[in-house]
Amino acid sequence: MQIKDLLESKPPPVTIRSNQDVPDAMRLLIEKQIGCLVVTDEKETPVGIITERDIFHLAFRFRGDMMDMKVGDAMSTHLVIGSPDDEIEKVARIMTDEHIRHLPIMDEGEQLCGIVSIGDIVKAHLNQPTS
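Now predict its structure.
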């Protein structure tokens, strides 16, 4: 099974800009009931990712001062990406090796076309027929 098959049943990825406030990111995560946001530039090109864990770490380090911080202060800029044509096993290996729980998926035109979580990968693996 390829990632593009998995993406067919998922909503489009939710994005945010690095100059937006951290509380904006928190609101989106809560409203959409998701674990991460892809951070994009003005051309909608992914430049990072911000997760619930990133915000949790920020809250611990800066306490109440974090409410005035920008997404760019908390996001991860080491962006590991996958392709719609990647096999699920390959993506599982990437996520395991990189110790990440969310993987943005980019098409050949460098367009963000989805995001998969480790939960998506496990679910797809469990639903695959055994031979």
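The longest strand covers residues 46-51.
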